[in-house]
Amino acid sequence: MKGAQISAGQRAAPGAIERVRIDPITKEPRFKVIGCEQWSNEEGFSENVSEVGVTGICGSGIIEAVAEMRLAGLLDANGLIGSAAQTGSNRCTSSERTNSYLLYSDNKVSLSITNMDIRAIQLAKAALHASFKILLEKSRVNRIDSILLAGAFGSQISPEHALIIGLVPDAQVSQIVASGNSAGAGAIIALLDVSSRREISSVVRKVHKIETAVEPNFQKHFVEGSAFPDNSSSHPELFKIKELPNVNFNQKRLRRQR
User: Fold this and answer.
1) What are the C-alpha distances in Å from 244 to residues 17, 68, 247?
2) How do residues 144-162 score in pLDDT, each as one tens digit?
3) CB neighbour class for 47 (10 Å; exposed up to 12, middle 13-18, buried from 19)
4) Residue 101 · residue 113 · CB < 8 Å
5) Which end of the chain is more exposed for a tag (fewer CB within 10 A), N or C?
């Protein structure tokens, strides 16, 4: 998810788009680039961004871009990007029967979110969805009190945007917290505190490994997790704070309904 398998993806380095907002009315984007303090619509952006350039989209940027496209009605719950006619935005362009959304372009680079990019996000989040569903079943837990996003990448993810695309289980935004470099912190504790080292050693012996991919319910949960949230009954916390557009860009399905 760190920009890998995304057409314009890159690691979180200077020049990478890390924050995205899309106006739901005009469908126009604004974004923030690593290495530049201003947002793309703010005064001084062009001058300051010239030092690092706009070179790609990192993991946190693609998550926000997809979520914002969903909020703006550019993307439906099945993961299809609408055409210019369907969305009312000329930023949506068609190629080989799929659509893409132009996020940024200049004389050096053109950065778009393609339907293949959306599919990559869907596959990643579907695997996460299946895994946490299986873990909940195995532990016989029905309610999640808190969600910790570990690692450097987890620290940069917007909890609200992660919730919008279903990357994390449905929960209150305040319950989704970045824990930072948990592995590094644990290693330091183990090195410096003998009593904690004993506790860690004891806990490790109690860990039960679950191969989620071979569990009987994995495929079922994986398929369920591929779509983006669009039902308030299964995502009550999300729909308390956001109203998602009810759009469907599947032309074949629409023709059959007529």
Assistant:
1) 24, 10, 9
2) 889 999 887 888 899 999 9
3) exposed
4) yes
5) C
Which of 70-74, 152-156, 192-196, 249-253 bottoms out in mean pLDDT, i.e. has the lowest? 249-253
pLDDT of residue 177: 92
215 closest CA partner among 149, 142, 108, 127: 127
pLDDT digits (tens, 9 = 90+) for 97-133: 899 999 999 988 999 999 999 999 999 999 999 999 9
Measure the CA–CA gap between 136 and 193, rounded to whole angstroms.
32
Give the separation between CA 114 and CA 99, rounded to whole angstroms. 6
Domain boundaries in the chain?
16-118, 123-241
Query: Which H or E element spans position 150?
Result: strand 147-150
Sequence-separated (6 or more) residues with CB below 8 Å from residue 203: none
What pLDDT is recorded for position 256?
47
